Amino acid sequence: MSAGFETDADRLTVSSGDFDGLAIRAAAVAERLERALDGAERAWGTDAVGQAFAAVHVSRAGETLDVLRNLAGRLSRFGQTVGEAAGSFRGSEEDAEQAITDTARG
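Above: the chain sequence. Below: its structure as tokens.
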């Protein structure tokens, strides 16, 4: 016996729109981080300790900023993919329903 597979295409369609809001929030966080990091290298000073600290942390902060920027786009694309999948599931259900109806009509 198989548990089967079930999909709620309507719920997927609604949920797909949630990712745009998440993408906007991720982009806003990236923008705030970028503003905070702008010129931050100068804050560490020119002495050896400050430069050593900057050498470790500035590049990681930049990497984090890149990840956040990419996250916004990835969330948006994933939402689109979920929406497309919902449309495909809905289309498959409608096609299957039509095939059963046609078969029943003989």
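Residues 13 and 84 are 8 Å apart (CA to CA).
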